[in-house]
Amino acid sequence: MPRAHTRAATIAFAVFVASASFVGGVGAQSSDSVTLTVTVVDEGGNPLSDAQLSATWDGGGPVNRTTAGNGKAFVDVDEGADVAIRVDHPNYVRNQPYVVENASEGDVTIEVARDGRATVTVEGAEGPLDNAIVRMFHDGQPVINERTAADGTFTTPEIEQGNYTLITFKEGYLRNRTTLTVDGQVEQTMGIRQESVLVTFDVSDDHFDPPRAVTNANVTVPGVADVTTQGTGTVSVSMPVNDAYEVTVTKPGYESVTERLSVRESETALNATIQRTPAVSLRADNDRVVVGETVRVTVTDEYGNPVPGAAVSRAGTSVGETDADGVRSVPVESAGNVTISAEADGRTAEITVEGVGSGGASTATATATASATATGTPTETSGGLGPGFGVAGALVALLVGALAARRRGE
Fold first, then answer.
1. How many Å separate Cα 387 from the centre of its chain?
2. Architecture of domain 196-274
3. Could you name the domain of life of the organism this protein comes from (predicted)?
């Protein structure tokens, strides 16, 4: 092969290799990835080696790295992501992850502190309390929120040395607060005591504007109270502090309601609203109606408001719907009891009216009266003058006869 051709082929191959290397390099590192240069230091600013880093972000990670002798590690993350970096070290700790917002290429310094532990014992008047709450805050940030064991104690995991706000309490007990300095392995005993506060329940019907007080409503707090509202719609109960309760309010004719109430360490109130159970009522203007006439009926809801468009039936046969005032006239076509019903929104009501004859009595009544008249035996008087005549009647008859004869003589 001529030397010129050989040289050209060599140059072409070199260009190909370089191009392939370039393309491969681009593909190996995503264009939206950035490198964070993370340095871990102690409270004096001294770099720490052998710190374990774990970086996570929404949809990414974890990326795990270990700091070198100079305290540095390189962490690749998505550009623009909010990255949380957790630090683990044999002798140092950080209570909260370090957050890099809107990540971009650059340096990040993370400070850690010497580690320590705290054992907290919670006691009441009866001795150590299990299931008591232990909360610890460092620089205003929550660090611990746990409960004591059966022996009333709780031991923290490794936390930063420093000053903490320590709060202990339990349902039904007042809170106890103190400042706890963690400078290694420390212990702290916290005493708490039981207490109750006054809670006022106010029950009203918000169908009205403004809402109206509901008297004789039953307020139930399981295991604590079962009371009834007074004339103002209120009732007060003493309840244990620092607890959450399910409060149920009921009253016949009303829909029940359940509210969640948190009671802290001062008097509080719960305003509960209820409404009447949806229903329809049916009322007739008359209980007795002459056959062939109509009776006017009115359909109302649970609050006495007219129900327009309610379907009205007589003895199971539709006679139409109520008007805008909830009224419908229903013909009464037969004697005796007539059932009238109304339906609206799946709710029904019915009444009974009596159909009577034109003389004012139902057919059954008229027949019974006629029968009694036909078969009855008149009572005769002792004078034999027929029914209704006694001695006084006879005297009157004689006087009338005498007066008539005198007039004829004149």
1. 81
2. Sandwich (2.60)
3. Archaea
| Tokens 């719960």, residue located | 270
Q: Is the dihedral of CA 228, 233, 236, 237 positive or negative?
A: positive
* Buried b or exposed e, range 181-210, using 16+ CB within 10 angstroms: ebeeebebebebeeeebebebbbbbeeeee
Residue 268 · residue 196 · CB < 8 Å: no
pLDDT score for 272? 98
Compute the distance between CA of residue 305 and CA of residue 336 in angstroms, rounded to an integer. Answer: 31
* 273 alpha carbon, distance to own chain's centre: 12
Q: Which CATH architecture has domain 280-356?
A: Sandwich (2.60)
CATH number of 115-191: 2.60.40.10
Give the model's confidence band at 186: pLDDT under 50 very low, under 70 low, under 90 confident, else very high: very high
Confidence of residue 358 (pLDDT cuts 50, 70, 90): confident
Contacts of 344 (CB under 8 A, 6+ apart): 280, 299, 307, 309, 310, 311
